[in-house]
Amino acid sequence: MEATGTDEVDKLKTKFISAWNNMKYSWVLKTKTYFSRNSPVLLLGKCYHFKYEDENKLLPARSGCTIEDHVIAGNVEEFRKDFISRIWLTYREEFPQIEGSALTTDCGWGCTLRTGQMLLAQGLILHFLGRAWTWPDALNIENSDSESWTSNTVKKFTASFEASLSGEGELKTPTVSQKETIRRYSDDHEMRNEIYHRKIISWFGDSPLALFGLHQLIEYGKKSGKKAGDWYGPAVVAHILRKAVEEARHPDLQGITIYVAQDCTVYSSDVIDKQCTSMASDNTDDKAVIILIPVRLGGERTNTDYLDFVKGILSLEYCVGIIGGKPKQSYYFAGFQDDSLIYMDPHYCQSFVDVSIKDFPLETFHCPSPKKMSFRKMDPSCTIGFYCRNVQDFKRASEEITKVFF
Predict the structure, then answer these.
(1) CB count in 10 Å sphere of residue 399
(2) What does the DSSP 8-state code read for residue 166?
(3) DSSP H helix total and E strand total for the chain
(4) Catalytic pick from 47, 111, 319, 388?
(5) Which residues of 198-268 form beta strands (DSSP E)?
(6) 3-state secondary structure of 250
(7) Mean pLDDT, the chain, whole residue set
(8) Under a CB-based contact definition with an 8 Å cutoff, are residues 178 and 50 in contact?
(9) For the chain, what is the radius of gyration of the CA atoms?
């Protein structure tokens, strides 16, 4: 009877924490995020400028976009589609119980694991789909009727984003028929992309069998002295992700590995060794590598001298984002505008989705609206991620990253 009573108390605590987090963070999700039409927006190496409708017009001097950047001018919808296509992983509730605990939610403690998952997911998207890929249904997400979204919040989010752009007029989103429940894919290539899109998301499902799901990450975290319910820092998560990829036995994942820098130092020879299957291998045998660099950008607070460094990192096509946030609140940083960082927030608690079911719903794995945060509020402890497809790509990335440092 005592054990049963304890279980009931734990379940009550879990429900209370979930309700509290949703009350605390849902209003943040509903809050408008303001974007300027006069400043470029950088998102994981892509540059968007909302002001110019004519692609032949030159961007203003010192706009932040260079000739080498992938500049997309005057198209808010392209930015929205690109942002929404990134995989969003948040708190979940009512998933299978985590072994060794009574927990069926990560609400209140799993945010850094979630941002780590988002960074890894972006690396896998680059690996299998490429940076140019966007989800064909991204702009349809406002019609989601998933029970995880209440009071038409998704529709409000997308509308508020477009309304938030300062300047003349309001940009419209094409209306999509609610009867369109099944997308017809135009060719085999598009179908293949959608298969990998679903496959990548399924690897992050909240079940013990998911390769990079919460249950597995917690298991790998035990070697670092962590357990379910603990708070995980960005550096610890970097090593957990490395272990998870190393242990993955899926045939699709044999061509990718993770390298974690020690003391903010990346040793090129060590990275290349991880990429090559043998000393005699040529480039056809190279493995792709995700490089994770845990860093501290200041003392108790982030040193503002690092602002240009962070901007430079997020401007690189090799960047897969930053595991960072505010103190004790982890965010996935994916871009910036002016001195504000663009991020995805994992703190909204959503219902468990069984990704083993064919055609499981995708809407709750894509964030409909970007958020911004002043760089000054950033916690100094973070982990930076890069993706390199092969050894030659790593060498090119090293040159670009060196330019950012110096």
Answers:
(1) 9
(2) B
(3) 10, 12
(4) 111
(5) 256-260
(6) coil
(7) 83
(8) no
(9) 21
Could you count the other beta carbons within 10 Å of the beta carbon of residue 208? 16
- Note the pLDDT tens digit of each residue in 145-188: 333 333 344 444 444 454 555 443 333 333 333 334 344 556 78
Which residues have a Cβ under 8 Å from the Cβ of 231 and sit 6 or more positions away? Answer: 109, 112, 328
Give the sign of the dihedral formed by CA 383, CA 246, CA 350, CA 236.
negative
CA–CA distances in Å: residue 231 to residues 2, 4, 111: 28, 27, 8
274: how many CB neighbours lie within 10 A of its CB?
17
Q: Where exactly are the structural domains of the chain?
A: 2-168+185-405
Which entry of 345, 366, 379, 382 is annotated as an active-site residue? 345
> Which has the closest alpha carbon to 105: 216, 228, 199?
228
**CB distance 404 to 313 below 8 Å:** yes
Structure tokens at 198: 């679903």
C-alpha 84/C-alpha 274 separation (Å) is: 32
pTM, full prediction: 0.83
Q: Residue 278 and residue 290: Cα distance in Å, rounded? A: 19
Q: Residue 175 is encoded by which pair of tokens?
A: 């209306």
386/315 Cα distance (integer angstroms):
12
Burial 303-317 (b: 16+ CB within 10 A, else e): eeebbeebbbbbbbb
By C-alpha distance, which of 99, 72, 86 is closest to 346?
86
Query: What are residue 346's phi and psi, to 5 degrees?
Result: -85, 0
Angle between helices 234-247 and 111-128 in degrees, nearest 10 = 50
Active site residue 345: yes
Considering 197, 215, 239, 347, which one is annotated as catalytic?
347
Among positive and negative, which fits the CA dihedral 84, 87, 91, 97?
positive
The model's pLDDT over 186-206, given as tens digits with 9 standing for 90+, comes to: 678 889 999 999 999 999 999
Token pair of 203 as six digits: 């690897």
Residue 111 falls in the annotated catalytic set: yes
Q: What is the torsion angle, in degrees rounded to the nearest 10, for the CA atoms of residue 261, residue 265, residue 266 and residue 267?
A: -120
Write down how long the chain is: 406
Please provide residue 383's backbone torsions phi and psi, each rounded to the nearest 5 degrees.
Answer: -130, 125
